[in-house]
Amino acid sequence: MLLRTDPFRELDRLTQQFTGANGTWSRPAPMPLDAYRAGDEYVIHFDLPGVDPDAIDVDVERNMLTVKAERRPHPQAEDVKWELVERPLGVFSRQVMLSDTLDPEGITADYDQGVLTLRIPVAEKAKPRKVAVGRSGARKQIRA
């Protein structure tokens, strides 16, 4: 059984959630992410708890990576009376701009324990490489 809380406290919590600490308008991020580089790939983790893997769509168009996910309501029996509903339902979307140094053709995606992990390889043209330095013989002068 869930206990109901003070409605004014809930109103304050919602106000802070939507206005932010500094009073500017912001929306809660329904799909928070972490991104980092590991060797020759970038890794992005999206938190998507409660989302069925079949309800996740990952698209790349040019340099724009778009992740869409739908959190569907649980089937409910007739005798169920919801006391508190805080988890957002519906379709969520998040876009990430990919740099030209990444290879969108090589993206892989895995979903485990509510976390979608995308791995994006660094493009071959962007990887560091050695340049061979050759020896030149005697220079010939060209007369005009």
Automatic annotation (TrEMBL):
PANTHER family cross-referenced by the UniProt entry: HEAT-SHOCK PROTEIN 20 FAMILY MEMBER
Originating organism: Kitasatospora setae (strain ATCC 33774 / DSM 43861 / JCM 3304 / KCC A-0304 / NBRC 14216 / KM-6054) (Streptomyces setae)
Keyword Phosphoprotein included in the entry's annotation: no
InterPro entries, alphabetized: A-crystallin/Hsp20_dom, HSP20-like_chaperone, Small_HSP
Family of this protein: Belongs to the small heat shock protein (HSP20) family.
Protein name from the UniProt record: Putative heat shock protein Hsp18
Record Gene3D superfamilies: 2.60.40.790
Keyword Transmembrane: no
Pfam families for the chain: HSP20
